[in-house]
Design a protein that fits this description.
The chain is 27% helix and 27% strand. It has 309 residues and is an alpha/beta fold. The longest helix has 15 residues. Pfam families: ADH_N (PF08240), ADH_zinc_N_2 (PF13602).
Length: 309
Amino acid sequence: MRALLVDPAAPGSLRLGEADDPRPSAHQVLVRVAAVSLNSGEVKRGLSTAEPGTVLGWDAAGVVERAAADGTGPAVGTPVVTLGAQGAWAELRAVDVDLIGVVPQGADPGAVSTVPVAGASALRALDRLGPVLGRRIVVTGATGGVGRFAVQLARRGGAHVIACTGDPDSHGPSLTSLGAHEVVTDPGRIDGLVDGIVDTVGGRQLVDGFARLTQGGTVVHIGRAAPGPVSFPDGAFAGAPAGHDRALVTFYLLGCHGLGRDLTVLAGMVAAGELEPSIAWRGPWDDAASAVEALLDRRLHGKAVLDLR
């Protein structure tokens, strides 16, 4: 099969080449991939650490070519969206049936390919916050893939959404159109206390956000766009009255149960136009180097999608 292979000598450290077809286990289906979306984490870390010839990729959408041998999962010919630790950037992908969402017939594979990491991370982060109806919810890194899904889902849940972006003048209108009630540069600029934070940035924003939590508030930290160590002030986690019952939590997406259900629901919402996938770059997979360069240069505010042609 053809695949995008890690090659440090190639533009973007990727080249189109030949790789062995995957061999699905009994609990896996074989998917014919139509489109993939890129994530900054896999691009920044994966391309610099993977062995040459590796097929990377977390997110892919396509059609089931071979059903799981154990009889579970979707049937041959079913449109699906898939999640995994690697192997998405290829014509064929073997993926666990627990990490597959069923996609409505006729849906754009490129649009639904944005769902797995970004959409599921946003949904699971909001799940950690509990019911958001009527609550003040902050999303840091709101112009990124996770952030844009989190803004939309929080608004649909009835939250008062405060989006954080480094350039509110440029990105405020688009974030407002996605559902944000307020757009600020960082949590330190927020007036009053907040009930929950979906943090995709880390660094100073994580520290300032935690300081603005109300009693019973939670920060869900799921990203480290700001490199370097994080230092909380002395007493930040003390059980004093001002800091009573605040929480800082994290999670590992692939360790979550029930992701297939999440992927199915989110893909259906994207297909129905209820969620905007916010595709900032789209092109054929033989131009992957351009997408990688744009992601590394932080020029994309949204998702990058490659169509396999």
